[in-house]
Specification:
Elements lengths: L1 E3 L10 E7 L5 E3 L4 E4 L5 E10 L7 E10 L4 E2 L13 E4 L2 E2 L6 E7 L5 E3 L4 E4 L5 E10 L7 E10 L4 E2 L19 E2 L1
């Protein structure tokens, strides 16, 4: 992180200092008016900076500012429900942290045939083929530079249900009858 503070008026050069509050952990303010460093903790820091000019007697000005450090971006969707061949499917992926809006894409693998992933994070469509698809999604937030997170997921599309019993044996009058039916899918 690096951001220069700007002042006008008075006599240059200016000298900058922290007047109240504190900067986010990992950042510091130089006397030249540059806030820089690598933030180490998420949160919002409120502080007041003071600029002093070089005339005698010196003139000063203060300004209340804040810096928000969003939490790391992460995908919170941990699993996806199974779909069904020929039945519309729609599931929203979820993330937390970073800066919204998020943008989603498929990083690797493939979705079940008939399904697609929108940039808004919705997996939708109508599955056409049975099987389990393994894939990795990536979410990108809208801060600069952007933060990204990935998550490996899978969607199972079981085969269509069908009765596999093709015929039943004949019964005998007065004799107990028992025959199991079978299905698959």
């Amino acid at each position: 992180y690096s951001q220069s503070l700007v002042a006008t008026g008075g006599v240059t050069p200016y000298s900058w200092s922290l007047d109240a509050g504190s900067l986010p952990a990992g950042l510091s303010l130089s006397s030249g008016g540059v806030i820089s460093g690598t933030p180490t903790t998420a949160g919002t820091s409120n502080f007041t900076v003071k600029v002093t000019d070089s005339q005698t007697p010196a003139d000063t000005a203060t300004k209340a500012l804040s810096i928000a450090i969003p939490p790391d971006l992460s995908v919170t969707t941990s699993s996806l429900p199974a779909g069904q061949i020929g039945v519309a499917y729609s599931q929203n992926l979820a993330a937390t942290g970073g800066v919204t809006p998020y943008s989603w894409n498929l990083q690797s693998g493939s979705l079940p045939a008939g399904l697609s992933l929108s940039s808004g994070g919705t997996i939708s469509g109508t599955p056409t083929t049975a099987g389990t698809s393994n894939f990795t999604v990536r979410v990108t937030d809208s801060q600069t530079p952007a933060d990204t997170a990935t998550k490996a997921l899978s969607i199972a599309i079981p085969p269509d249900l069908s009765v596999t019993t093709s015929s039943l044996p004949s019964g005998v009058v007065g004799t107990a009858y028992s025959q199991s039916l079978a299905a698959t899918g």
